[in-house]
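Quick one: sequence plus S-adenosylmethionine SMILES, need structure tokens.
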Amino acid sequence: MEQEQQNLESFLTWAAQLGISDSTSTNQPQHSFSACLGSSLCVSHFPHSGGRGLGAVRDLRRGEIVLRVPKSALMTRESVMGDKKLCIAVNKHSSLSSAQVLIVCLLYEMGNGKTSRWHPYLMHLPHTYDILAMFGEFEKRALQVDEAIWVTEKAILKAKTEWKEAHALMEDLMFKPQFLTFKAWVWAAATISSRTLHIPWDEAGCLCPVGDLFNYDAPGEEPSDIEDLEHLLSSTSIPDTILLNGDKNTMVDAEQLDSHSQRLTDGGFEEDVNAYCFYARAHYKKGDQVLLCYGTYTNLELLEHYGFLLPENPNDKVFIPLESAVYSSTSWSKESLYIHHNGKPSFALLAALRLWATPQNKRRSVGHLVYSGSQVSADNEVFIMKWLSKTCDAVLKNLPTSIEEDTLLLNAMDNSQDFFTFLEITKLMSSRDEIYTFLEAYNMKDAHSFTGLDLSRKARRSMDRWKLAVQWRLKYKKVLFDCISYCNEMLDSFMK
Ligand SMILES: C[S@@+](CC[C@H](N)C(=O)[O-])C[C@H]1O[C@@H](n2cnc3c(N)ncnc32)[C@H](O)[C@@H]1O
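Reply:
Sure thing.
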């Protein structure tokens, strides 16, 4: 712990020397060279939303700048390949993707140890990740849903293929054996996947010291109240004309305002100041965690790229099996036919089902209703609500565990002080196959002999990923359950 604190302090001092600053002044940082934070932000721990992250040291207003990271402080392919040896070797392997090269660059710098220019930054990177490509067979199976298992298999295969493709380059660079392993590769790939930020000149993105300490918030509502708008306008370089313009240019103004508010509520590289700039995306009280939106992701995508999921993710989607006739009844893409996080079918799914449930020879005549989101008829609506409810129910019944069992299992994982208590709680579950598989995988068949003992590190890591898998599948099941409730409510309204 003390070592970690020391690493953090030397990292922040190093960052200040590179010009990274959370000062609101556009010129020089207001505080001393000894640390880059303290004017707006501080590194803090947020156990329920991302662990280590950045907290507000004072009240922050939406739209105000909270961090600047100069281009020279960004770790990019370009900046690392200033090293001649690396540059010559990489140029001989032109078939590698830009992301593969950035992974090699990261491992190369890790291999340079203390002599690396990035050493203080590299020291504070996480030691492990929980992205899907790191899931073992047991954790993958724990996802239970074919789609999620398939995405995991694809992620593992992609990591293995890319590692093999990059092997010759890493050998040319005479990497030490520990940096040539698949384990090292997935660590570096996970670092790149979960921490890089977009830059316009390189699709591999950049590692952004300090800027990569912001934890994630899902995209939310754009500012709507007048106070927010006034603040946006007064705190930026938006020309006064926008403020003063009357009705005649409302559309143009709204568009301009929208693009400014997008820019203001997120991070991005800004050419004019040659730096990555981060703005508060909401009003924050002193002590609050300051968050950044990395993009719009479902929970499965968050797991795949970042190794976490959100308990309440407004962008989550659940796909259910549909007959091919449903897909062919409309021109909407498969990706648009899903159930929202709150159990409501998507606009396209409802419309596709309404058309599919209409006799072929009548579809043309009801097209205008369907495409405007209206019901076709009471009979049609009752039919599709019954069908949707039955389909969701069948999916739920086909899965090896129920919502109740998953909830119990998660409670056991959360509340057990030791492994013995965990096992005691799980005895309440009707099916314990999964638990026995876990015990067997870690040679703990005689679990009672482990009373009071902690799990091995390997078993603990597996349990962390197992927990993520259970959280994911539970959320998936709850969405299906909520969809059934939604259908039942709709059916009830037809009975009245
Ligand atoms: C860019 S880093 C953010 C800083 C990171 N917490 C750290 O300690 O270095 C992204 C990683 O933080 C974690 N994370 C970010 N937002 C999160 C959230 N809302 N809930 C849980 N974990 C989150 C995930 O592990 C993710 O891969």
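The two ends are 63 Å apart (CA to CA). Residues 49-53, 126, 194-195, 212-213, 215-216, 306-308 surround S-adenosylmethionine (CB under 6 Å).
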